[in-house]
Design brief:
The chain is elongated, with a radius of gyration of 20 Å. A 5-stranded parallel β-sheet has the order 2-1-3-4-5, sandwiched between helices. The protein has one domain: 3-Layer(aba) Sandwich (Rossmann fold), CATH 3.40.50. The chain has about 170 residues and is of the alpha/beta class. Strand 4, helix 4 and strand 5 form a beta-alpha-beta unit.
């Protein structure tokens, strides 16, 4: 296993769904991510991505824009329209990196955009950044739930007792 060029961030045991209809791109992307400890699930069609994201816990989606039948835009709309998948960050990649395409991607909720061909270091940096953000958001959510639980316990005294601050 090659050395991780950017060690120290929590990406192991995270799951990335890679969606690309070009098999070589799919294999290279999955292999690069697996080499640094990221669990990958692959789909070669948009409808497959929607099914996988619905049934498996996915931390990040790498989505190709240009695919047959169901393109990246339609797949993205399906993800955003489903309460179970609408929160998953999506990075879009394509050979078409015109400004209008990038702008539309950002308007439609894509967190990042990678033009093809993608350098391995750029791919790893992008994935690491977004998986790290997911890990931090999950940690903050957990801390918020713990705090809420603690406050509920502290304020749940017997009926008729004053559990508020003393004056």
């Amino acid at each position: 296993m090659p050395a991780d060029p950017m060690p120290g961030m929590p990406i192991q045991n995270r799951t990335v769904l890679v969606v690309d209809d070009t098999e070589d791109n799919l294999v290279i992307t999955v292999r690069s991510l697996q080499e640094i400890g990221v669990r990958c699930v692959a789909a070669s069609r948009g409808w497959q991505a929607l099914e996988i994201a619905q049934r498996e816990p996915i931390d990040l989606i790498l989505l190709d824009l240009i695919m047959p039948r169901m393109d990246g835009w339609t797949t993205l709309a399906g993800l955003r329209g489903n309460p179970k998948t609408q929160h998953i960050p999506v990075v879009m990649f394509t050979c078409d990196d015109r400004f209008a395409i990038r702008e539309r991607a950002m308007r439609e909720g894509v967190v990042d955009f990678l033009p093809r061909p993608v350098a391995r270091t750029a791919l790893l940096q992008c994935v690491r950044t977004h998986l790290n953000a997911v890990a931090h958001a999950q940690a903050l959510d957990a801390m918020g739930r713990d705090l809420e639980s603690t406050l509920r316990r502290q304020n749940a005294g017997p009926i008729g007792t004053d559990t508020g601050p003393s004056k």
